[in-house]
Automatic annotation (TrEMBL):
Species this chain originates from: Ancylobacter dichloromethanicus
Lineage of the organism: Bacteria, Pseudomonadati, Pseudomonadota, Alphaproteobacteria, Hyphomicrobiales
Domain of life: Bacteria
A Pfam family it matches: Bac_luciferase
Protein's UniProt keywords contain Transcription: no
Name assigned to this protein: F420-dependent glucose-6-phosphate dehydrogenase
Length: 333
C-alpha cells in the first residue's frame, strides 16, 4: 500500500499555524502527518520550534483519520527514554493505531543548547540510540523495569498508562550501521530524499534488508522517506521557496558542530541559489514531478512524506492534493 504524508515543519511555523496546516492536510486527503522535533530551528530569523510531543496531542484531538508521528525525535539527550516512553504511551492510549514514534541519533543544534552537554561522536550517539529503543520497549511491555545500561538506568519504573498495543518505532538513518539497526530493531525506516542515488540503492536499503534478515523478520515493514518537493504552477516561485531551507544543502561536515541557529543561517545564506535548491524536486509540471518521484517508489519506499519549503503551505496542500496526489496513487497504487 502506498501512503502519502505531509511533513509539518516545526522549524518554520508556530504551533497554531502548523496545526491548521496539518488539519488541512487530513482534509485534503493526505494519509499521515509527521512533525520534526527541534529545540532550535535551522534559521534564527523567523524561526520556530514548538514542542513536538505537546503538538501531537493537539493534532490527535483535532483530526480523526491521519497517522501521525515524529520525524524525528531524539530520545537520548534532552529527552530521556523513560519520559519518551511515558509520553508516547499516553499518546498511543489516546489515539490508538494512529501514532508512530520516529527516532534518530540527534543533532548538536538541538541537544547541546538545551542541555549544555558535550556533543559526542557518532559511535556514542548510536550506542545511546540502541539502548534507548531497548529501554522504551521494555517500559511499554514489562512491569517495574529495573534497567542497568551504559547510559540509562531505571529502578522499579512502571509506565502505568500504556496503549493496548505498543506504538511502532521507526528509526531514521543516513548510514549503513543505523540502517541495519533499523531493519533489525525498528518497525520502519526513515530517511530523506535528494542525496546521492547510490546512498539509497547501495547502502541504506540493502542494510535495512540485511537487518531484517538477521533478525529473521518478515511481513509488514514501512520504508518511509521525506520527499523534499517544491511544486507550484509558477516554477520561479517554486525555486525561490527553497531559499528558506538552504541549510539542508550544507554537507554533514559543514554543519556537524554548528549549535547556533544564527551561525547555521549565515552558512545557509552564503550558498548560491543553485546549491540551495539542490535537495529539492522543483517543478511546475505534475507529470514530470511524478516521474522524478518514481525512482524512490521503485526502490521500495512506500510511505512518502512531502516536505514543502514555501511560506504558503495552504496553497501547497491544496495544489498538491489536486494535481499530484491522484497521479501518484494512479501510478503506484
Amino acid at each position: 500500500m502506498l501512503r502519502l504524508g505531509y511533513k509539518a515543519s516545526a522549524e518554520q511555523f508556530d504551533a497554531r499555524r502548523l496545526l491548521d496546516y496539518a488539519v488541512l492536510a487530513e482534509g485534503c486527503g493526505f494519509d499521515s502527518v509527521f512533525v520534526s522535533d527541534h529545540f532550535q530551528p535551522w534559521r534564527h530569523t523567523g524561526g520556530h520550534a514548538p514542542s513536538a510531543i505537546a503538538w501531537l496531542g493537539a493534532l490527535g484531538a483535532s483530526t480523526s483519520r491521519i497517522v501521525m508521528g515524529t520525524s524525528v525525535l531524539t530520545p537520548t539527550f534532552r529527552h530521556h527514554p523513560s519520559m519518551v516512553a511515558q509520553a508516547f504511551g499516553t499518546l498511543g492510549q489516546l489515539y490508538p493505531g494512529r501514532l508512530i514514534l520516529g527516532v534518530g541519533s540527534g543533532e548538536s543544534l538541538n541537544e547541546v543548547p538545551a542541555t549544555g552537554a558535550p556533543w559526542p561522536e557518532m559511535k556514542e550517539r548510536f550506542a545511546r540510540l540502541r539502548e534507548a529503543v531497548r529501554l522504551i520497549r521494555q517500559l511499554w511491555t514489562e512491569e517495574r523495569v529495573s534497567f542497568e545500561g551504559a547510559f540509562y538506568k531505571t529502578e522499579r519504573a512502571t509506565i502505568y498508562d500504556k496503549p493496548e498495543e505498543p506504538v511502532p518505532i521507526y528509526i531514521a538513518g543516513a548510514g549503513p550501521m543505523v540502517a541495519k539497526f533499523a531493519g533489525r530493531a525498528g518497525d520502519g525506516f526513515i530517511c530523506t530524499s535528494g542525496k546521492p542515488w547510490e546512498l539509497y540503492r547501495e547502502t541504506l536499503l540493502p542494510n535495512v534488508a540485511a537487518g531484517l534478515e538477521e533478525a529473521g523478520r518478515a511481513g509488514d515493514y514501512d520504508r518511509m522517506i521525506e520527499m523534499k518537493v517544491s511544486f507550484d504552477t509558477d516554477k520561479a516561485r517554486a525555486l525561490a521557496d527553497t531559499r528558506n531551507w538552504a541549510a539542508l544543502a550544507l554537507s554533514p561536515e559543514e554543519k556537524h558542530s554548528v549549535e547556533d541557529p544564527l551561525e547555521m543561517e549565515r552558512l545557509a545564506d552564503a550558498l548560491p541559489a543553485e546549491r540551495a535548491a539542490s535537495r529539492w524536486i522543483v517543478s511546475d509540471d505534475a507529470d514530470a514531478h511524478v516521474e522524478r518521484i518514481r525512482p524512490y517508489v521503485e526502490l521500495g519506499f512506500r510511505h512518502l512524506v512531502f516536505h514543502a519549503p514555501g511560506e504558503d503551505q495552504e496553497r501547497f496542500l491544496r495544489l498538491y492534493a489536486r494535481a499530484v496526489l491522484p497521479k501518484l496513487r494512479a501510478a503506484f497504487g
